[in-house]
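User: I'm curious what two different proteins look like when written out as structure tokens. Can you demonstrate?

Assistant: Sure. I'll show them one after the other, since each token string lines up with its own sequence. Here's the first protein:
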Amino acid sequence: MLTPKTTLSGQLDGAWWPRSRDLAAELPVLVAALAEPWGRITRVTVNPTRWPVIPHKVLAAGHTLHVGWFTEQDPDKLILLSYTVGRWDLLVVPPQTAPAAAARLMAAAAVPGSVLTARALIAAEAVIGRRPDLRNREDAWESEGGARVSDIGSLARLPVGPLSAGAWW
């Protein structure tokens, strides 16, 4: 999910839910999907904490994508850079995240003008995911005719936009 261009800027510009922790496999899909709306993405930065192997260069969308890593960068954030459009900071939803939790994280990362960091969103989701009373409230709502996110959670893995191997919102 991406934050609309016409809104206030916040800490994050959206979220990305990769299928794995393999940057060499995941980045080309993301970059190809974003090439049309954002232009040519030339650089990506990550924190090495969450990525076991960080290639220096990756072939993506017909060009070389330079990958940098910085320990100072939020471990749960990926930064994309483009000469034509600028910079985007995306929350990286961990690949093993349950669909309902991923949907909540992606929606929260796309809130216009939000001051919450990637790390704060991941920490908040960890707390929410462990609270059975919140799940019980969803069950009560379901009995009143609503639908739990977990019931439609399989939709969260469907790509929004042109992606076929990962999800970005």
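Here's a second, unrelated protein for contrast:
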Amino acid sequence: MTTHSSRVPIVEKILNANDQIAAANRARLDANKVFSINIMASPGAGKTSFILKTIQALAPTVRTGVVEGDTAPVTIDADKITAVGMPAVQINT
């Protein structure tokens, strides 16, 4: 079996449009003095528990909110967050 490899020049970053949207989002958050973090991990890793503990600790002094992203249209995690009185928005990623 003969193998052949070649290089394909990359003219533009594949995620260029995503990078531009992310930069615009960062600028908007910065302009409004919004501190944001992105928490990603596998299912069952404890993300929602961590978020709940964090927002409960911050609640007396810091205004918080959560954008909950999930690949399935379920609202279990967003429901847990709103159940403790924190605003949450569910998005399908």
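A detail about the second structure: The chain has one domain: 16-92.
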